[in-house]
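Async update (no meeting this week)

Hi team, since we skipped the sync, here's where things stand on the single-chain job. The sequence we agreed to prioritize is pasted below, unchanged from the tracker. I ran it this morning and attached the output directly underneath so nobody has to dig for it. Comments welcome in thread, and please keep replies under the output.
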Amino acid sequence: MNLLLVNNAEINQEQQVRLTDRRHQHLLQVHNLQVGDRLQAGVLNGQCGEALILEHQQEHTLVQLSLTRNPPPPLPVTLLLALPRPRMLARSLEHLSTLGVKKIVLLQTARVEKSYWQSPELKTEKVHQHLLLGLEQAKDTLLPEVIYRQRFKPFVEDELPQLSDGSRKLLAHPGNYPDCPRGLNEQVTLAIGPEGGFVDFEVELLQQQGFEAVQLGERILRVETAVTALLSRLF
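Output:
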């Protein structure tokens, strides 16, 4: 935990927070902090700064907040991601949150098993927890928005034009396509398919909406690897 992340509702009038949950346990067992020590802290969807340890006991930790700076800037990207396998979803969400992606659309595509949508990893509290872990890792406070769309064609035709308006539209797909661009300084909407890729119909539908197909090379990557490689290259 590189950042102690708290909710605004937890802060009292003296700008203090009493921790009794996993954050307290982490500070107690991992950080080995003492009264008077300081650590990096932030308010969810708010500012960052420091927390001073006022009390540090077996049952709770009491900290005093001093928040004076903004969180790191987000990546200028909206990510359309075919719903990964449940065991990959958790890692993917944490990676995306750490990297600074703030809008994620999880999609049903032809090669996504419909049973994935029943996974416990998609429960609101689980998704929220994975996003928080990513924020803590990156010393960020701005919670990503996750949108779920289980009908590919209606989403692409009816919602995507407005969602991607004014951005550069890129479709990451293996094949004989131009190399993925590097070092962009513009808003991007990026579509990434499942491990088997989008089917031809899906590629054509996205291209009809102005998406340029690009590729990273001959190797077929796992979803969490492809996400990291693409975002690192683009930005």
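Quick observations from my side:
The first helix runs from residue 22 to 31.
The chain is about 30% helix and 25% strand.
Reply here if anything looks off.
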